[in-house]
Predict the structure.
Amino acid sequence: MRAQVLKSYDESMSSNQWITAENIAEPKLDKSTDVIVRIGAAGVCRTDLHIIEGVWKRFMDPDGTRLLPMVLGHENAGWIEEVGSDVQGLKKGDPVIVHPKISDGLCLACRRGEDMHGEGPFPGVDCNGGYAELLKTTVRNIVKLPRTLEPRDVAAHADAGLTAYRVVKKATRTLLPGQFCVVIGVGGLGHIGLQCLKSMCASEIIAIDRSKVGLDLATECGADHVVKADGTEVAQVLELTDGKGAEAVIDFVGERGTTVTGLNMTRAHGTYFVVGYGDDINISSAELVLTERSIVGNLVGTWAELTELMSLADKGRVKLITKEYALNDANQALRDLYAGNVKGRAILVP
Amino acid sequence: MRAQVLKSYDESMSSNQWITAENIAEPKLDKSTDVIVRIGAAGVCRTDLHIIEGVWKRFMDPDGTRLLPMVLGHENAGWIEEVGSDVQGLKKGDPVIVHPKISDGLCLACRRGEDMHGEGPFPGVDCNGGYAELLKTTVRNIVKLPRTLEPRDVAAHADAGLTAYRVVKKATRTLLPGQFCVVIGVGGLGHIGLQCLKSMCASEIIAIDRSKVGLDLATECGADHVVKADGTEVAQVLELTDGKGAEAVIDFVGERGTTVTGLNMTRAHGTYFVVGYGDDINISSAELVLTERSIVGNLVGTWAELTELMSLADKGRVKLITKEYALNDANQALRDLYAGNVKGRAILVP
Amino acid sequence: MRAQVLKSYDESMSSNQWITAENIAEPKLDKSTDVIVRIGAAGVCRTDLHIIEGVWKRFMDPDGTRLLPMVLGHENAGWIEEVGSDVQGLKKGDPVIVHPKISDGLCLACRRGEDMHGEGPFPGVDCNGGYAELLKTTVRNIVKLPRTLEPRDVAAHADAGLTAYRVVKKATRTLLPGQFCVVIGVGGLGHIGLQCLKSMCASEIIAIDRSKVGLDLATECGADHVVKADGTEVAQVLELTDGKGAEAVIDFVGERGTTVTGLNMTRAHGTYFVVGYGDDINISSAELVLTERSIVGNLVGTWAELTELMSLADKGRVKLITKEYALNDANQALRDLYAGNVKGRAILVP
Amino acid sequence: MRAQVLKSYDESMSSNQWITAENIAEPKLDKSTDVIVRIGAAGVCRTDLHIIEGVWKRFMDPDGTRLLPMVLGHENAGWIEEVGSDVQGLKKGDPVIVHPKISDGLCLACRRGEDMHGEGPFPGVDCNGGYAELLKTTVRNIVKLPRTLEPRDVAAHADAGLTAYRVVKKATRTLLPGQFCVVIGVGGLGHIGLQCLKSMCASEIIAIDRSKVGLDLATECGADHVVKADGTEVAQVLELTDGKGAEAVIDFVGERGTTVTGLNMTRAHGTYFVVGYGDDINISSAELVLTERSIVGNLVGTWAELTELMSLADKGRVKLITKEYALNDANQALRDLYAGNVKGRAILVP
């Protein structure tokens, strides 16, 4: 089958052809709970860029011999192609979205519902993913789509959407009317996060982005205020919030200074949620203690959360802005993302 | 000043003139934290009917000599008229809404933020209320209105709205997308509850009412499904919820059988919230245990919750449907409420 | 193998021989995730009596043809005997405790960690259980025991302990120092609940029982106050709690009037947790609303909660008081339980 | 009256006489809610050292002219001396402990129960405190002591105890049996925190300290494991926790490297609570995101929490280890604290 394969890291990000189109063997069912999915669309994620530039190599492939060559693509939706002998309720052709983490269902993390905290592979990150025609996963990763949704409409929810949804769910468990929530970065994750926020709480939403594209998208997605990240964003947020900052700040960027500005616009007793990554977080313990603020790291959501997000999508409360590329144009999609030229989320369609 | 006074209970509810127009002395400042409010509007509540028919007499006035004569009206908004010597930040003419319970601020309930659980009078229920030109309350009861809101726009929030808001806030702390919330009764409280739900969570909302007026109001207020209470309502809710019932059921009626039907449409592991009252709640312990359901009683909200609700009103997310009566027509308003002829909430305007 | 079989219901509970000793076929592995456990001990539970007298028949076997004959015993521990081909990490002879509910691991309840809320059999309640030499269950039901614990030391934790632990865990999520928790009934569940409470919160514990045996056991298990259930128990709890009642009341009995007394000793804004069952729960909606109390039904705990309870047992924080009977004396054990002559929990040892 | 006054900052901490004994005017009642307390004991806190060395000057007294001279002492207990005209239920001689923050009771923070997050003075930090014979405070700050407790037994609870209690309360809301909690630093706060942890949850407690005195105190206070902070403490905690770290780490030190080691021993999905301060907190956003950890700042507790802590003290569940000094020996107490020569908490007795 056709696939887009990462064959070497590029720490300088100087290449024009990070990944390579190849014909590789089709995946086969192995265990009785395995499932093969025919890819309908695969999302292109900043994490793919981080993998290419070796950020994850440090943790997962220190000597560079363990992972590559690897098919990228951890954000997948499509149709059931084939199922193992113990899989019930799924048949060829069913439209599905694929939870990205393969979990065993037996460890304590899984048994507490936090399946992405268990051990197990993460296709597209540490084994072959969905930049291809077929993907091997398991019955535990499959969420069937309602009739209203097509794989290409939702592929980007499998990771971007699910991560944005989870952090918003955390934040909205305590956000109240009259309080403020800041969203930093209105791109692939941020534009979903904004719509989730709008649906799930009645707090006032302030969206921050560097670009006009991002700010316009924020308005479309229901932000109550938009703030241009031009160096005055902390001052602007303080002005909107009586000089005190927001009760919740969700940082979908995590680089180019946002871990500093994000914390500086977080109110006393408030929480700074970090989702995007790249920069360090640095704050004096005295300041954190005296203001009793919290800093919360955020991962992709659980399988149950993916069903919750599909419910939002089904009702039309969260719409993905996507830009389609042919599978063969994967490098173009990655380059556009790297250059900041994608509105919403890029997806590859085989 | 003019006031509408309850002079005797009417357990049979057979009178046409439950309360009496009188001229009574104006209230005077007593403690340094007292505040006199010029009434802009006072809501007419089913609790007023319950007071008249003696439901509260049982608890608060068993021998009938303690409370009457009493000015009714526990749901008040207006303008500051006069403030005690220790009151800061309020001046004559400021538009305000009045939290109904007078709390001391020092007991453990107050110190934990649950001010309505402390000891203290409840004007209009156990001392003179707001069916009058002036009302005496305290600085702790005052919430200043934003410029967007007039007293008559919000009076009914002081009790009806605040109670509806609190129960919705409780329910939405756990309600998730893909889950269901039933609202029983789309009257004075229910139509506010629906709008709060719509603003504060992304669950699917099913509204139930006996009347076409109520069902139309439900649709206006954002219900996803409306169900006529014609004896088939449990079956209809089960059909909408895959045969399992709703994760949360909020019963704003609590009489005419809703405590039975409400519980019967609550899913295993779900919660039945009772707000309206009248009937008994009766369920076998075996059934409650085997399904692990909860039954939660709900009171009026806290002062802080009143500020949260005012924020919703300020943003236009919750609009009151009210029917205005002159203060002198208080009996007419009460009769209309008793007969089920009020859409939304009745208010008295001096 | 030897087994104790229920062959007919006895609604009058008048027989002396409710169940019958028989030789039945040994269970066989069927699915690749099945596990056969050699029983070390099986707890004897009030639910067994309720099954015999037909309480569950109503829900699960209305025409009396579906369930019997059935081996009772839903509270089991022992040693691994044989495992299916996909089971890893378990080998013959490993000491284990068995979670009572067989869950699929794939439904939304399981995926949220609430495995006992999914569909699936409950051995000893709707299919053959552990009053026998061998029991068939699945890998998802197995918790390996730490070296400090023997199967007969912990069997009664599989249901009694797990139920008591779960309700205590719920209650202690909000109980604070200075608050009160009442435990009604210091028998098989209550004596475990008391020890869990003592370990997991610093609230003041009041234990209520009808018998001196129960009250002595309560003191042994760490109750701060013991109250005899002699008709004055509500008054005694009110006296211990400043006339206000307890923030949490956990009712392990649920019959002989405790659903009334339990609610009457629950403070305003407090919660009545019902675990034992038999009586109806009956309260006026007005009273529940005016006091803002909650009534919470409680089921057996999750698999994860069974591991938490095993951790308490491992540290010696929760000790079971058990009375051993030979498997062949099952009827004697059931009769002793029915007559109130068991201190702690009865267990059957093959 | 006699008082110990800070007259100038000492950023180098090189003086031997940081504060000066003086005779100053007695405080007078001003508002009707004021209360004068005769000091029974005043705790000596690391924050006093931080004030002397100018850490707080940066935030509160940037040009050095606003605060000094000031009587230190923010951790006070004693007996009622005199009360304002609106104060009820308190009379001369009543033993009391004093909540450190003066709050207005009317702001949103106070109304939500988080009184220490409102505006208002903090005696001993920004106005005269309790290193003296008398202290002026308000009725809102007073907690009456039960008969079992003397002011000198509890003074150190007013800040050290209350801070330790609050962070432990936060942590224990989610800590479960089988999980681990690390306490870094077994001094004035840590030894209280350990006892609170032991009383309020059943998790396994690991205490870390540099000194044998601290480690012995940890064992006395109920730690399950003690670990010497000798450079191997992260490795030791990982070994005790299956290589994964602890679900909660409470850092009562916050300097000399503990913000690094503390985070490094926090498990994925776990929380690092910082209480002591001095060092910066520094972590890569990628690491925080990939492990989904949280970092939580912690302040002194609320008034309600002080009553909860007094309940623990009343039951003997939390005992203070104190070292008494005469008021005149304040400099000696401060020097001993600075040199690490105080076991538990130093208190000054007038």
In short: Residues 162-297 of chain D form a domain with the Rossmann fold fold (CATH 3.40.50.720). Chain D has twelve helices and 17 strands. Chain D touches chain B at residues 31-32, 86, 105-106, 108, 111-115, 139-140, 302-304, 307 (CB under 8 Å).
